[in-house]
Specification:
Strand content: 15-25%
Number of domains: 1
Number of helices: 10
CATH topology: TIM Barrel
Radius of gyration: 17 Å
Helix content: 25-40%
Number of strands: 8
CATH class: Alpha Beta
Bound molecules: phosphoenolpyruvate
CATH architecture: Alpha-Beta Barrel
Order of helices and strands: EHEHEHEHHEHHEHEHEH
Structural class: alpha/beta
Shape: globular
Largest sheet: 8 strands, parallel, barrel
Amino acid sequence: MNKLLVANWKMNKNTLECIEFFNEFNSKYSAKRDAWVSPQAIHLSLAIHEGAKKNVKCGSQNASDHTSGAYTGELSPKNLKELGAHFTLLGHSERRQYFNETSKLLNSKVKTALQEGLKVIYCVGETLPERESNQTLSIVGDQIHQGLNDITDAHEDNLIVAYEPVWAIGTGKTASPTQAQQVHAFIRAELKKKFPSFGDKVRLLYGGSVKPDNVEELLGQKDIDGGLVGGASLKAKDFLALCGDK
Ligand code: PEP
């Protein structure tokens, strides 16, 4: 399977900047690697339209655990799917940290999004104090087990997990390929135990200051199937380089 690079634009870019990104990206993207883009929800429709010209799939950065109703400000996974969204990120550390999203709530969001036919990129990762106190594997293991409870084989093609050490997100500090591979191997083993029929097929992405100059070594690791990228996905030139199009 191709390596997958997912752009997480967070709350960045205005409408014109989105259009300029796709104009430049689409002119050089050769699909050596799969490229997905996650803009702000207000630009999702535009991104889906522009991305479709080069089979670049687009998705949201969050989705509700409800499909409709009195949930002001929320994003319905049902309506995201109807709009043409391909996936949603869930459990990004910024959602966990600033919006108090727990793995229990995220489990509900993951199940609802999968039921509505979206692919889910479920994010996990430890903070610096957790790493320094040797809790990385237990924290990540808990996030996997709590967040991915009760997922059936019917969704085997739609689950993706992103390991993003919180200390490496937007900080310029990257986990070394060895550090990243160690956690990815652990996640792979946990997924195989939890989902014996498909745990070995779930795509595992690494996120945390992935850049053109470190991407090849990270993607060369056995259990790293792609990257979830913030800062370096904002410039078309850099995202192209991550996708193997220099
Ligand atoms: C992210 O936000 O998911 C991320 C990995 O950001 P950055 O690449 O900027 O560290």
